[in-house]
Design a protein that fits this description.
single chain; alpha/beta; TIM Barrel; 11 strands; 349 residues; nine-stranded mixed sheet
């Protein structure tokens, strides 16, 4: 007898008691003084915060701020968003403005084409949060901040290359676009016959989970493309109940969920943090995908973890977790045709 599978109805998000995601996107902490005051931190951190913000502005949504432990300078979420004095130190050799060589891969405004079969579409230059280790903190967004009409022109680049079957929406953060703009872009991509997969790289489901609206979930569910949402979470403390609910809602709608993290000194460069992150992600129906070694961008050298230390952590992680919960340790190297896997030793280095 043939059994017909009937999918469960899409779970909806209760937004009745929370500010809209647009309001939350606008209501953010943007100064070192406010960040330090709200978290009851020692004022002596203020000069370094102000100095760092001159190079890369502070931006922290209140929803994320509420997960940071007050008065704890070592809080792993705080250290991702507060400029410290180390950020203002002289730049070590090898740390550059464009660590991934994206300028040379920026083939046409809005398009970064480095890998076979897929292109990255820069949808905008804005993010909900400014992570101090961001490899695009110096990216020329002004040259790639396209109008909808220019977006459609950028898609001509994809239409002319039938070997491209995947479009990756990035930024900035693609989910900072409003629905009208975002959905129009998705529709235009769906109209390209040889594109079969849409990947969205976004930190918003983690930092402003209210962005995962019923309308967004329904549109991605209804897409003719295979939709993959790659979120960016570095520590289990970033996932509160609201974040978990948003992730599970997307999973129930048939959206594939992956996570990529960055291995960051003083934040998640220990076994317990990485184990807890993988376990917490999986309870939210998210699979660990990549664990990146730091991209050597100017201003972020103090987050760098040595490759050998990363390899030892991966070995310990493999001994602690099932294989499907162990992310791939990788480094992105300018000019290479894919992410570069970092092999794990058979014994500690």
């Amino acid at each position: 007898m043939t059994h017909i599978f009937h999918p469960a109805p899409i779970e909806t998000v209760d937004t009745s008691t929370q500010a809209s995601w647009q309001q939350q996107l606008a209501d953010v902490v943007t100064t070192g003084r406010e960040l330090i005051s709200k978290l009851n931190l020692d004022p002596h951190y203020l000069p370094a915060a102000n100095q760092g913000a001159l190079d890369f502005p502070i931006r922290v949504p209140k929803a994320y701020l509420n997960r940071i432990t007050p008065a704890d300078i070592h809080d792993p979420l705080l250290r991702q968003v507060l400029p410290l004095k180390e950020e203002n130190e002289p730049t070590p050799t090898g740390f550059v403005l464009d660590p991934l060589g994206e300028a040379s891969s920026n083939k046409t405004p809005g398009i970064v084409h480095k890998y076979h079969g897929r292109v990255l579409l820069i949808t905008n230059g804005s993010c909900a949060i400014h992570c101090r280790y961001c490899f695009r903190r110096h990216f020329p967004y002004d040259e790639n901040n396209l109008s909808l009409k220019q977006w459609l022109s950028a898609l001509d680049y994809i239409k002319a290359r039938p070997e491209i079957n995947e479009v990756i929406l990035s930024g900035g953060d693609p989910l900072t676009n409003n629905d009208k703009r975002l959905f129009a872009l998705i529709s235009a991509i769906e109209a390209i016959p040889h594109v079969t997969r849409l990947r969205i790289h976004s930190r918003l489901p983690i930092v402003i989970p209210a962005r995962v609206t019923n309308e967004l979930v329904q549109r991605l569910h209804d897409s003719s493309l295979n939709v993959v949402m790659v979120v960016h979470c570095n520590h289990a403390n970033e996932i509160d109940e609201e974040v978990a609910a948003a992730l599970q809602t997307m999973h129930h709608a048939g959206i594939h969920l992956l996570n990529q993290s960055v291995l960051l000194k003083g934040i998640n460069d220990n076994l317990n943090s990485l184990v807890n992150l993988s376990e917490r992600l999986f309870t939210c129906r998210v699979l660990p995908y990549y664990l990146h070694l730091l991209d050597p961008v100017m201003g972020a050298h103090h987050f760098d973890v040595k490759e050998a230390d990363g390899q030892n952590l991966m070995l310990a992680l493999q001994n602690k977790l099932p294989g499907f919960l162990v992310p791939k340790l990788v480094r992105e190297v300018d000019g290479r045709p894919s992410k570069t896997p970092i092999s794990t030793p058979l014994s500690p280095i």
